Amino acid sequence: MGFSSDTEKTEQPTSKRLGDARSKGNVALSPDLNTAASLLFGFVLLYAIGVNIYNSIYKTMKLSLGNLLCNDFTQDSVLYLMSSQIYELMKILSPIFSGFILIGLTTSYLQTGFMFNFGMLKPDMSKLNIISGIKRLFSTKSLVKLVFSSMKLIVVGVVSFFYIKKEFSVVNVTSIIDLSLVEIFGMSTKLMYGLALRVSTVLLILAVIDLFYQKWQFKHNLRMTKGEIKEERKQQDGDPLIKSKIRSIQRQMAMKRMMSSIPTADVVVTNPTHYAVALKYDGVAMKAPTVVAKGADLIAKRIKEIAKKHKIPLVEDKPLAQTLYKTVEIGREVPQKLYHAVAKVLSYVYQLKKRNTGI
User: Fold this and answer.
1) Among 270, 151, 167, which Cα is nearest to 205's?
2) Residues 50 and 167 in one domain
3) Is residue 60 part of a domain?
4) CA separation for the pair 80, 73 (Å, rounded)
5) Are 177 and 56 within one domain?
6) Highest-scoring range by mean pLDDT, 40-44, 107-111, 198-202, 243-247
7) Do the domain assignments include residue 245?
8) Per-residue pLDDT tens for 229-260?
9) Number of domain units in the chain
């Protein structure tokens, strides 16, 4: 019997799941990309400023050795010599170190964006579990990593072989014997630099491929079941049953407030059976009469019962009751187009009250 589709991880991770993983420091990252980019940058930088670095080191060493011949060996002179050497070396190497730091930060940012999480500094004791370590060692991820590392060695080996073969096919081996030591050193340096540049470029290309694989693997591991997606949406939007219950309670509370406002009304306009709208008007506090309650059918019947109990006049006006019910919300003032019709009803009610009070 097969598993239900709700239990199979076939759906892509949602933005919330990706965000939760990121908050825990779990992101798609290729460490090889940082290494390859730094190597390539280092060789390019060495090619660009290598001569200047050589000249600077040559001048520093010449000056230092010259001072050794001129100065007496004392503790102060040795300390001064060492400190000046260190200072000069720092000036020479600082651009290289700064470049490595910059390329490392830039490469990391391009992979993951800005991410600062103190939770990543907490020790993970599960990594000390021997059984879990053995499982990770023989996992599919480790196997893929082994295959990819082997592929890198093969590709780098092939590139190195064909480059060296090409260079030696151009150079006459017998003519090397006639070259001076400086010329041999220069030729060897050029050969090693060309090889290093090609190897680092190949490593960068493989690292980019690894980054795409890491991103795919990252999303593949975070895949969700349809049930998990439904549960997540339920948590974000709220349980429909709870939301329905809340709306029901809100309606009940609104109904109670509306019914409690009926005794303050001046008149209830009826249909007479289908609609009932309670109106109130205070010439000092209100610009126009206001609807304090309204309802249809059973609610209309309840409004009329409360109105009769509190001796609120009931006036039958079918068109007005229907229009007020459909166009004016509870707590809103009557629109200007209905002023005349409502004024007639209120005038009738006020005259009725005067007769009843004998004024």
Assistant:
1) 151
2) yes
3) yes
4) 11
5) yes
6) 198-202
7) no
8) 877 777 766 667 777 787 888 888 888 888 88
9) 2
